[in-house]
Design goal:
The complex is a heterodimer of chains A (459) and B (342).
Chain A lengths: L5 H4 L1 H49 L1 E4 L2 E4 L3 H5 L9 E7 L2 E5 L13 E8 L2 E14 L2 E12 L1 H48 L18 H49 L3 H34 L5 E4 H18 L4 E5 L4 E4 L1 H18 L6 E8 L2 E7 L32 H11 L3 E6 L6 E8 L2
Parallel strand pairs in A: 9-11
Antiparallel strand pairs in A: 1-2, 3-4, 3-7, 5-6, 6-7, 8-10, 11-12, 12-14, 13-14
Helix pairs in contact in A: 2-4, 5-6, 6-9, 7-8, 8-9
Chain B lengths: L3 E4 L16 E5 L7 E6 L3 H14 L4 E6 L2 H10 L6 E4 L2 H9 L3 E2 L4 H5 L5 E2 L3 E14 L12 H10 L1 H4 L3 E4 L5 H13 L2 H11 L3 E3 L2 H10 L4 E6 H6 L7 E4 L5 E11 L5 H16 L13 H6 L3 E3 L12 H15 L4
Parallel strand pairs in B: 3-4, 3-5, 9-10, 9-11, 13-14
Antiparallel strand pairs in B: 1-2, 2-4, 5-13, 6-13, 7-8, 8-11, 8-12, 8-13
Classes of the chains: A alpha+beta (459), B alpha/beta (342).
């Protein structure tokens, strides 16, 4: 069933792959969201502390005797202490003139808002700075005090590092869990399919009941189609068998009638040329009858060989039965049939097919060997095989190794003059093969004669 | 002793190019033509030389030039004059932190610095190697028959009850002169209002102002003064010879503990040697492997047991009192309290 490439045809693989890809995408998205969120939070919390620091400095500013006094509280800077020991810079400006602090520290423009924030390079570091401005009143004269507090961002970078490490782990964990779930989902989907496949392939060859396996709703249309296919197949199968049986009946009966009439007429006719014609006619009728029988046998064998209905078959009774049925014809030609069955032989097989095979082989023997010669039928068990041997005392095969012998409608070179269609050996060969056995064709070394062995594995 | 003192005070005359004021220069030449490690330090040479000799025992080829200055001169030398030193050791933690904060120090990493507790290093640039308490030092003679004060409040009560006995006989740091004194005073002031009450009282009793702990300890021992406030307990404890004359009392309400720190200025030439010296300082002080260590301060274990001991935190908070305006205000207030007319 490799009409499609395996990679695209495996539902499990495709489903698992799709789930894995979406899990990876989700894990990446998760990573970026958490990472950005953490960076934002980290940045905001640093801004808040910086703002609180700057505000506490401004809150401590007063005007005494026309001079701005700023009593920077100890916690204004100690609150900026952190495990990464970030460096702190500040600047206090009164109306544009430096009051104290680092003169070269840049300011963040607040643009009307209360506080302005900025990330700037300063000396060899990158600083986050906040600038806060407040108007004080010096006896009615406004005085503007601007406080800028800056801090390096080592701690933030450190926290961000730790968070990103954690987020990577989180993303990987998420992906791992999703991957396991994806594989399980793929398996469970595939398993419902393989359950269905199992329930269909486990049934016997003649089991053409509809499938009733419990399947997911998505697979119900498939099961419905399968069941309708089975129903049609079952119908066609039955019709074909019926047809073959019907055909056999319809062909043989009129032929038998015609033959009876021809024989009656033969008895009444005296003129030699008419008798010759009638004998030719009877011979042709026999040939047609036999050919029709063999064609239908072959059709039946072909039909059933694909769908073997195995059951226990006891070969010796089967063979005895057939010999009994054939004995009137054989007796007419004075051909005694000897059965040599040492042991009961049981095989698993289709009795109708085995009957067909053995009947055709016996028929061949009766047909091709000269009158007054015996036919020997042997049944033996040998190294795991049941072997049915049919031997006559005729001319034998011209070349037993000729593979053409078992081809359809092929007859031995020395068979001319005998009624036959050339299907007998083909039928026997097909039956043997259908049963994992084989057919051996040879000429008997002791006194000649054809010898055909049909072997079928013992049960 | 291998170290040779070849030059004493006022080497200024010999080195006119240098603007900062040097108290004393000691040269410890190494064997052969080894490199020379230049140390600028606030620690008295006598206290520090055993550490240097121990270092030279391990590194015989290294010569050491030890320049003793006051703590504010460390700042002047490094920040303003760009003097070249390989190591700066100072008791003024605030100035050390400011040097590091302003980007004038190099970072240094080693197994030993990493082993330091968080509070004993800042920015991997400032490394503490001692814990030295600010104590009250009393004269045994003067306090005969008196109950010894154990807290600032008890000292206040004592001074109030016996003003005549202590008038002119109290000593404390002149915070305008001494970096350590300023650090102690500002930390006291920020911890408790008691400091200002004590200062008012000391000012009223015409307290004498000193620029170094050693002088105060000497005057207490000699009986010049009866009590000295905010004296480095480590220096007082080191004076085994004076134990009959002085009593050292760490105030039980709270004892400010100063961390003596070392940093590598970025003008350093012998960075690797300076790092070795920092490791040596950490090893001798924290690990106690060298009994010659001369800073009998507080051990980290004592710190955990005694809640009254308050080590000054290394951190940006120390920058506050270094602010020009803040300093001006503090000094104004301090002067108002301590420098009172008779």
């Amino acid at each position: 069933m490799s009409l499609l490439r395996p990679s695209s045809s495996s539902i499990r693989r495709r489903l698992t792959l799709q789930l894995l890809v979406s899990a990876a995408v989700l894990a990446l998205v998760l990573f970026f969201i958490v990472f950005n969120f953490a960076r934002q939070i980290g940045s905001e919390s640093q801004d808040r502390v910086l703002l609180a620091s700057a505000r506490s400095v401004l809150d401590a500013s007063t005007i005494q005797d026309g001079e701005v006094w700023i009593d920077i509280p100890y916690f204004a800077f100690s609150m900026l202490d952190n495990p990464s020991d970030d460096r702190v810079f500040y600047q206090i400006v009164q109306d544009g003139d430096l009051l104290t602090g680092y003169e070269d520290l840049p300011q963040a423009r607040s643009d009307g808002a209360e506080a302005g924030f900025l990330t700037v390079p300063y000396r060899t570091e990158t600083l986050r700075i906040v600038t806060l401005t407040r108007r004080l009143s010096d006896g009615g004269q406004p005085v503007e005090v601007t406080v800028t507090v800056g801090q390096t961002r080592d701690e933030q970078a450190d926290v961000l590092n730790r968070i990103s490490r954690m987020t990577v782990l989180l993303g990987l964990g998420f992906f791992a869990v999703s991957a396991v779930l994806a594989v399980l989902a793929g398996q469970s989907t595939a398993s419902s399919l393989s359950r269905l496949a199992g329930s269909v392939s486990r049934r016997g060859p003649q089991d053409l009941r509809p499938v009733v396996a419990d399947v997911p709703s998505e697979m119900r249309p498939l099961v419905r189609s399968l069941n309708s296919l089975i129903a049609r197949l079952s119908g066609a199968f039955t019709r074909t068998e019926d047809f073959i049986a019907e055909a056999a009946h319809r062909v043989r009966t009129p032929l038998a009638t015609v033959r009876a009439h021809a024989e009656n007429t033969l008895r009444r006719v005296d003129r030699e040329e008419n008798r010759v014609s009638l004998r030719e006619m009877i011979r042709a009728i026999d040939e047609s009858s036999r050919a029709a029988g063999q064609l239908l046998d072959h059709a039946m064998v072909s039909l059933r060989a694909d769908q073997l209905e195995l059951q226990l078959v006891e070969l010796s009774s089967l063979v005895r039965d057939l010999v009994e049925r054939l004995s009137p014809v054989a007796e007419m030609r004075d051909m005694p049939i000897r059965i040599n069955a040492e042991v009961p032989c049981e095989v698993m097989g289709d009795p109708i097919l085995i009957q067909n095979a053995v009947r055709n082989l016996l028929d061949n023997a009766v047909k091709y060997a000269p009158s007054d010669t015996p036919i020997e039928v042997g049944i033996a068990a040998e190294s795991g095989n049941a072997i049915i041997t049919i031997r006559d005392h005729g001319a034998g095969f011209p070349d037993p190794t000729d593979a053409q012998l078992t081809r359809r409608f092929t007859r031995g070179e020395n068979a001319a003059g005998t009624i036959g269609s050339g299907l007998g050996l083909t039928i026997a060969e097909e039956v043997a093969r259908a049963h994992q056995g084989h057919l051996v064709i040879s000429n008997h070394s002791d006194g000649g004669g054809a010898c055909v062995q049909l072997s079928i594995p013992l049960r | 002793m291998r170290a040779v003192i070849y030059s004493l005070a006022l080497t200024l005359l010999a080195l006119p190019a240098i603007g900062f004021e040097i108290e004393e220069t000691l040269d410890f030449p190494g064997a052969g033509d080894g490199p020379t490690l230049r140390i600028i330090s606030t620690a008295d040479t006598s206290v520090f030389s055993p550490i240097i000799t121990a270092f030279q025992d391990a590194n015989p080829s290294v010569g050491i030039e030890y320049v003793a200055v006051t703590s504010s001169e460390v700042m002047t030398a490094l920040a303003e004059e760009g003097a070249e030193f390989d190591l700066a050791i100072s008791s003024a933690m605030d100035l050390q932190v400011k040097l590091a904060n302003d980007g004038l120090a190099d970072a240094y990493f080693s197994d030993l610095t990493r082993a330091l507790p968080d509070w004993a290093r800042w920015h991997d640039q400032v490394f503490a190697f001692t814990l030295e308490p600010a104590t009250m030092v009393l004269s045994r003679a003067a306090f005969q028959g008196l109950e010894l004060p154990t807290t600032r409040q008890e000292l206040i009560t004592l001074l109030r009850d016996n003003p005549d006995m202590f008038r002119g006989r109290i000593g404390t740091y002149d915070v305008r002169e001494s970096g350590s004194g300023y650090l102690f005073a500002t930390q006291d002031a920020r911890t408790s209002e008691t400091y200002w009450r004590l200062s008012e009282l000391m000012g009223g009793l015409q307290a004498r102002l000193y620029s170094s702990s050693a002088d105060m300890i000497g005057d207490v021992a000699s009986g010049e003064i009866a009590v000295a406030y905010n004296v480095l307990g480590s220096y007082a404890g080191a004076r085994d010879d004076l134990h009959d004359q002085i009593i050292i009392i760490p105030p039980a309400d709270f004892t400010t503990v100063m961390l003596r720190t070392a940093l590598i200025p970025n003008s350093a030439n012998e960075v690797e040697l300076a790092g070795q010296m920092i490791d040596h300082l950490i090893e001798t002080s924290w690990l106690g492997s060298d009994t010659s260590f001369n800073f009998p301060g507080v051990t980290p274990d004592a710190l955990a047991e005694n809640a009254a001991l308050r080590p000054i935190q290394l951190g940006p908070g120390l920058l506050v009192y270094l602010d020009r305006l803040k300093r001006r205000q503090f000094l104004a207030e301090w002067e108002a309290a301590l420098v009172q007319p008779e």
